[in-house]
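Homework help board

Subject: predicted structure for assignment chain

Our instructor gave us this sequence and asked us to write out the predicted structure in token form, then describe one feature. I got the tokens but I'm not sure how to describe them. Can anyone check?
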Amino acid sequence: MNIRKFASASDRRQALEKELRVDLKNIGLFTLNEAVACKRNCENMIGATQTPLGVAGPLKIQSNNYYIPLATTEGALVASVSRGCKAITESGGAIVDSYKAGVTRGPVFRVKNLSESKRFCSFLEEHIEELKKVAKDTSGHLQLEKISSIGVGHYHYVRLNFDTQDAMGMNMVTIATDAIASYIQTKTGISCLAISGNYCVDKKPAWQNVIQNRGSVVWAEVTLTKHILSNVLKTTAQKVYDVWLAKCMIGSAMAGSMAFNAQFANIVAAIFLATGQDIAHVIEGGLGVTTAAIVGDDLYMSVYLPDLMIGTVGGGTGLATQQEALSLLGVAGGDKGKNAQKFAEIIGCAVLAGEISLLSSLAEGSLASTHARLGRGGAI
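My token output:
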């Protein structure tokens, strides 16, 4: 059966039901705009997959309160993040800082030898303003910020770094990179093997993205008082610190992990799914470091997210339910990059809440019992 010949999601779904003798009635229940989704988000659409959506909070970030939409099938996750939010909020709120590192694309070119590789480097350095104009001509919402490159053998890898304002921007960056690669080929005679040669690094864990950053970079911190540790988290500064050191630091090092944290990916994935982000970028958002320090009877905790690829316009953010989730946070739509940066900071603080709650649960020995209670149909 040629599934592409059918005109609608309903027709495709019915054809599959007939051929495979399955019932897909729940997949056929959805409220999103099929015409938009088929054109912009999903080919051969047959329906939609539903994921429960919960809300954690309020989470106080500096002087504002937020409710965090989390789409998940993991019982206990929303409750855990909510507990972390309570601990942060009652401690006076999280302090956050961030900057936009930019979206990258990394084409690879074929060079004949070291001499041609050196000539290639010189061209990039001497013609960066021309390359910026080539990029700008592809989209008024994009700007080429910087270029770096490295050669090995017959290959020369280029890392193009773009500002994409409030969009996550991989589509516009890919189009701009294609135009830049064509321009370079025309001017130098050096061929581009692929407009993505993995030097980006896109949708893969890489130390380059940790060190040089990608997307948005976020730091968030809070000091939890002895009272909050005891009454909200049911533990002590020393116990949480001991678990953090053994798990996030030593355990991660022993395992060769690139993520020195407890569960960044859990919170990032749930927010991404709720707000229409590219789910594959969870692998980048899961990178990062959690730190802890005992301050008297209190506990200082912080998180560092070096590679957060998010947007508030474009892609899945335009779908109705995802727009509503972004509206919950006050970041729906574009605002010259401000919404995406605010969104990144909210994610960073939500991740901090998740780290605090999980490490505290491990410290008090309640992780298994909580999952048994909340993840197996127990009372909330």
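Reply (TA_rk): Your tokens look well-formed. For the description, you could write something like this. The mean pLDDT is 95. That's the kind of observation they're looking for.
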